[in-house]
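Can't paste images in this forum, so I'm doing it all in text. The chain is below; anyone willing to post the predicted structure tokens underneath?
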Amino acid sequence: MGQVAFDTLQASEELETAGISREQARAISLVVRKSHEVADVATKADIVEVKRDIADVCKDMEARFEKNEAQMQARFEKTDAQIADVRKDLSAEIALLRKDVEHTANGLLIKLSAVMLAIAGLASTIVTVAIKLL
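Text version of the structure:
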């Protein structure tokens, strides 16, 4: 931070003109100068520099946000594509399972039909034998 310029001679002269003694005017001017030396006061140039720094940081943050947004968008697109692939694979697997279940069901139906025919034939034989025995 810069320091504010303070003219002690001019201040002393103005104080003397206002009716203050030379020693008091000199003492007041020195105290004011020392207070300015101790004070850390921002100058217009300091403020302009800080504004410039803030603008640079804002630009940097904007660029970072845009980069992160682009990376996130790319990841979302990649994830969406992976999800679509998984859905396609699952649909194919489900279709194969359905065919397997249908094939198994048809096989069981054929076996059940054969068992029913065998039972019907056996029942017919039992009835025929029972009739002959009676």
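Residues 1-41 form one domain. The radius of gyration is 51 Å.
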